[in-house]
Amino acid sequence: GDIDMNPVCTINRRILVIDDSPNILEDFRKILRPAGSFISDEYSEFKQDLLDETFLHCDKEPFDLDCVDNGMSGCDLVKQAKLCGSPFAMAFLDVRLPNGWDGIETVERIWDEDPGVQVVLCTAYPDLGWSEVLIRLGHRDQLAILRKPFDPIEVWQLSTALTMKWHWTQQAQLRVQDLEEIVTNRTAQLKE
What we know:
Layout: E1 14-18, H1 22-32, H2 41-50, H3 53-57, E2 64-68, H4 71-83, E3 90-94, H5 103-113, E4 118-123, H6 130-137, E5 143-147, H7 152-191
Helix pairs in contact: 1-7, 4-5
């Protein structure tokens, strides 16, 4: 068993968005879906409001996007996705979700289901106590903050960077497992 150091695999571009505002969910769809999905009249207005021509015309690979309006539904999707072998690489969550769990509890429950999900907490409230967030969620390297109103390029760049980070973290874990198996097998051979 030698290890293939250059496996061919596709990047997981599955993203979950949890926000109670239909307008915010639509903004995420418009930013992260492929250019071919921008065929409505509202698109022109959206383009003028949020996106510049350069961003729109650059060649961007689409993200696989799921959007829900509450934490419980989002957590259910994370659980199902992991069970089906097609986990989410990342999630954008509104901090203040009025129906059921707030954003922080939702993150805790998502990480109970799948600790590898990269999370971006979104908030429009400058009064949110980040010390409380960090006490509850810890100083984890898969947690980022995005202030609303967000710039579409920030959403795109975070999505690109964090899905790649998820990918390379998974690849590193597979390498470690492979190396551990090789060490175990060779140790057993030496004892024979």
